[in-house]
Structure formats: structure tokens, C-alpha cells
Amino acid sequence: MTQADTTQTGGTSKQADQTAAAALAANPAVDDAIERIVGEIESARASITGVRGPVTGGRESLKDFLERQKQNKGRGGFFPYIGSGIGNGPLVELLDGSVKWDLINGIGVHMFGHSDPDLIRTGLRAAMGDTVQQGNLQCNADAVMFGETLVEQASRGSALRHCFLTNSGAMANESALKICQQKSNAAPRVIAFRDCFMGRSTAMSQIGDNAGGRIGLPLNVQVDYMPFFDADDPEGSIEAACERLDEYISRYPGQHACFVMELVQGEGGFKTAPREFFEPLMGMCRENGIAVWADEVQSFGRTTEMFCFQTLGLGEFIDVVTIGKMSQVCATLFTEAMNPKPGLLSGTFLGDTVGLQVGRRIVDRLRDGGYYGPDGRIAQLHDAFVSRARKLAKSHPEWFPAVPGSGGEPFGGIGGMMRMTPFGGDRTKINTVVQTLYRHGVISFFCGHGPYHVRFLPPIGVMEPEQFDDVFLLVEAALEQVAEKSDD
Question: How many structural domains are present in the chain?
Fold first, then answer.
């Protein structure tokens, strides 16, 4: 028996029956305390049943915090939003006591909504851990098990075998870029789709196709932009994309580290494309030694399979994939062939203890809860959105003129990524719609680069299809108000 196998008691060696952590976790008093806390939270959130206005004195309190936020950050927020710290599924209470439908969820972070008892229970137990943050030099079992859970899901139909955890989607993407550059022996160029979004770090701001995100930054990442799928011209857009990729490969032979692909464009407008669009492009990359990197930071968990590359049946082509948002702790997953040399990937933080355990619980619930497949909960929720949106567009065709590239429909997206395009996708009017929806009690956001769209990321974990009935009553009222102002 080694010293590591014993504990010292009064100068003698004694083998421990179990770790102190295991004994604490099995303590019935801990279970009782957690259940009492969860029970109180459930009682409190039960009073949140629908949209409502502020409580007495609430406006003044919210106004004060908004001013403090502005002073602290240097500018105000997009919405006058400061949460109170409680909600009930898709409904959230603000600091002024008002309640709104939260259909953007921190741009997709809170996909089991607000005050979910199961996740609170998980978080309370995780909070007993010895550290708030875990890192790459020293981590607990939470990090290992979460990475294993992600690899288990990602390896279905792909060669992905390894996982590097990190604390933001941008850093997951930075890690992916470094992996691809090292594997290509420092090839300087990156291929990406037009209108892509990659994150807010220096390198990712340069790859992302958003001029506003790189104003004043030095441009030292060489990016070749590709046309995305056009729903109005499917065959033509596939042919055009293949021709453009062949042109780049011929012009810069051996100079591309990777082709980064958002299989669903997020900030770019919730644009989707079929397997038939991606497959030939990925095949050309494979033939020319260009790594295929799928950026699923926003799409992870939201399509009809855990990963969008699985939904599209493209796993055989994927070399690297990045995830984030709903996973709480972000990750870069890669194949054995892409496994980098020691020293390339590291970082002080990999994620917080609560995030690791809650993130793993989220993945487990999505995997086992009937969410996936063509008839799963996510597909049913998307169908419910589409049916209400189609009915609204049919009732008010004047609000929904034809929009180029939409395939003839004023709504779109996939799974839990939903969009609507009223008023021709005009930027000013879409912004007005989003702000008007907020005042009516529905939190949404925008996406796209012309046309612009109203974006919804409803909490797929807890929202029920029939709840869209109440939401669309408010959507219709908001659009009517915007239309009337436009006519003035």
C-alpha cells in the first residue's frame, strides 16, 4: 500500500473506506436541504403564469439599475432588461416585477428556460465542489465526465474522438483555428461563408463577415468568402459554390488551413442548406487536404439531432467541431488525425464547476428526453412555430411581402432556431418590430444582413407547442402597431 492509498490518523496509517466528497454527496441531510431549497423555488415561480406589468415601485428600481449598468459598461443595453433572478420556464421576471416570454434566452444559452428545478438541483449539488472554477492544469472529475459525454454524442457517425473544454465560444473557435493551422503546417488562409459569425476575439472578428465587428482592427487573417445556399436557386447555388471553391483552391494551392462552415448560419439570418449543398464542398476539401471545421456554437443541440452535422448526415467529413451556448461550458472536438501537439491548447480556466455539471445534465436530458428525431419535441416545437407564422402571414399578407433568398416563405430556420421576416426584411422596421415585441411582452432579437429577420431561440427544453398561441397573439398585436406607424 502506498502513502497515496492511506490517511494519517494519530501517527498510524489507515485505509479510507471512501473519499470525503463521496461521503458528503451521499449524506441524506444534503439531499433534504437541496430539496427544501428547490421546493421553495418551485413555490415562488408558480406565481409566474403569464405576461404582466411591473409591480409597485418596480419601474424606479429597474431604471436605477439600468443607469448603473450604463455607467459601468460605458453604454446602455439593447433592451431595458435586468432580470430579477427567477422565472418559470419560458417566462422570465424582470427586476421591475414585469414578466415576459423569453424567446431569445441569452442568444440561446438558457434552453431549459428560467428556474428549472432539475437544473437548480444539479447546480446546488455542484456548488458544494471545492472550487468555483476548474482549469486545464487542475480539474475535477466533472470536467472529464463532461468531455466524455460530448465525445460520446459527437462520435456517432463521425471520427471525432477528443474534446478540449474552454470558457467561451470564441475561445473554442480560436482553439479550432490553431488546430487546423498547425495540422496544415501554418497555411495562412481560411475559407468561410459570406455572412458568417465567429465570435468577438481578434482573429474571429476578422473571419466573421461583419464589417462592424472589425472596425479599427488590423486585418492579418486572410479569408476567402464563399456564397451560401440560395433557396430560390438550389441547383444554381450549389454549382456556383463549387466553382468558387475550385477557384480558391487553384489560386492558392496548399494555402488553406481549413474551411469553417456554419451548417446553419446564426447571426447571418438562420439560413439553412441541405446535405446536397455541403457534401460536394466537403468532398473537395477532403481531396485537397483542407480541414473541415463545423462551427456549431449556436446550432448545437437545436436541430433534430444533437449535432447539425448528424442531422445532415455529414459526419464522415468533419475534422473539427466547436460547440457552446446551451452547453454552458464550450468545447472544441476533433479527430485523432487532428490531435494537436502538446502546448498548443491550454488556458487557466476550462469552465466553472456548476457549468460543467449543469451542462452535462442538459446534454443527458436532451439525449434521453425524446427531443430528437423527425417526430421529437424539437421538431414538434418548430412545426408549431411554422404553423402559427404561416397563419399570421396568410391573414396579413400586406405585412409579409416576398423576400429574396427565402424560398417564398416569410419565415424559416430549423429546429429551435426560428425566424420571421415581416416588412420585407427592412432593417429599420425589423429593429422596430423587435423593440415593439419587447414592450408587448415577447423578447426576441434580430439576425441577417439584408434582408433582416426577427430571431427566436425559444427554450426548447421546456416550451410547449401550444404556448405559441399566447405568443402569437402578442406578435400579431406588435406587427399591427408597427404597420400602423408605417402608414402614418
Answer: 2
Grid cell 459570406 is found at 194
Q: Domain check: are 177 and 312 in the same one?
A: yes
Tell whether 479 is covered by a domain: no
Q: Which domain holds residue 42?
A: 28-126
The residue with cell 445532415 is: 312
- Eight-state DSSP code of residue 428: H
Is residue 40 in some structural domain? yes
pTM: 0.94
The 10 Å Cβ neighbour count of residue 348 is 9
**C-alpha cell of residue 133:** 472554477
Amino acid occupying residue 182: Q
Q: Is residue 221 part of a domain?
A: yes
Q: What is the structure's pLDDT at 13?
A: 61
423555488: which residue's cell? Answer: 41
Rounded Cα–Cα distance for residues 45 and 84 (Å): 12
Percent of the chain surpassing pLDDT 90? 93
36, pLDDT greater than 60: yes
Tell me what the mean pLDDT of segment 33-59 comes to. Answer: 97
Which residues are CB-neighbours of 216 under 8 A, at least 6 positions away?
A: none
Residue 231 lies in a domain: yes
In angstroms, rounded to a whole number, what is the distance separating the alpha carbons of residues 454 and 440? 15
**pLDDT tens by residue, 177-210:** 999 999 999 999 999 999 999 999 999 999 999 9
Same domain, 42 and 137: no
